[in-house]
Amino acid sequence: MRRLANILILIVAVVVLYGMQKTKPRFGELTAPIPVYGQMHDQIHTREFDVTLDQVIFARQLDFTQYGQKKTLTTSGLWVIVTAQLAATTSSTSVAAATWLGPTGLKYAVSDRIGWAPGMPPHLLAPGLPKKVRFIFETMPDQVNGATLLLSGKVEPALDSEAHIAIDDFKKFNDGQPSIVDSYDPLRPLAGT
Amino acid sequence: MAVLIEEKQGASERRWRKRSLWALLLLIPISLLSISYRDLNELARYRDILPVDVAAGEIKRYGGSDWQFQGLRKVEGIRPGRLPSGSVPMVARFVVEIGDPDLQNLWLMCAIKLTDRTGRTWYPTSVPGMPSPQEGIETCSSTAFSGAQKSERRVIEENYLVPSDIADELVPTLGMHSERPYYLRFAKP
Question: Does the interface predicted TM-score (ipTM) exceed 0.85?
Answer without folding.
Answer: no
